[in-house]
């Protein structure tokens, strides 16, 4: 089990994580979801000690991570990044077996693990083992990125937006693949995404982050049907009814209060299609009345919301 106890992280005096307390159980498919800058990568990298908390403790199986031998600890923590980062001059087999080689596994054992894993993700080893990364599609390379992280049978795998650079079809296939791998292996998956659809699709446990704070943690039903606050409700509303509104964008933290004069009769209940039209008609800046304030959206708010 992984446990965060009152973890804070500041970068040069700016708070990135505020009093984070959470537990991740063994074997869970744990998804952390939140908009860009909410602290997801920081949280993930604190687990494998790429980033050190400013204060607070992180425990793995009851022991402070600082008390583990770093090399040994990292071998038990696979790590998959968004940009695939395979070594271009090494074959696929060599890429998969970098860690096993550093552990001095013999050639036969290394080959077996590479071939078994390639098989598992639907890449024929006889065809793919000898190829170079440039001879694979983006989706295929990311499959290799995932199995490379599994080569030493780690206890947990940390994945940081691994599919966000892929086209929608490859992304869906890879989501299915990680669900299958998770069912087959007894490994804890810790998966970071900004995509609420992906979070709902993959997570057994879902942690919703905003601005360095954990807003809610729970299963699909908790998050979709029992949101703890307006932020969580707003973030997942679209998933629930497929029709996002201006109010949900405000709840999700987009737009700003302003002293500018109103130039639009936009309402909280209006659809985002309506907002797009208003932005177009008003040179990309819409000011409308929201309860007692004048509120402003710019075009990038809408784009950021959708991304
Ligand atoms: N090395 C760094 N130096 C300064 N600020 C950083 C650094 N890394 C991240 N931050 C800031 O910390 C906050 C959280 O970042 P991050 O964990 O990368 O968020 P996410 O992965 O959710 O997009 C952001 O405001 C970001 O700008
Ligand atoms: Mg990130």
From TrEMBL:
Record-linked InterPro entries: AAA+_ATPase, ABC_transporter-like_ATP-bd, ABC_transporter-like_CS, P-loop_NTPase
Family: Belongs to the ABC transporter superfamily.
UniProt keyword list: ATP-binding, Nucleotide-binding, Transport
ABC transporter domain mapped to chain residues: 2-236
One Gene Ontology MF term: ATP hydrolysis activity
EC number: 7.6.2.9
PANTHER family associated with the record: OSMOPROTECTANT IMPORT ATP-BINDING PROTEIN OSMV (PTHR43117)
Protein name per the record: ABC-type quaternary amine transporter
Species, as recorded: Companilactobacillus mindensis DSM 14500
Domain of life from the UniProt record: Bacteria
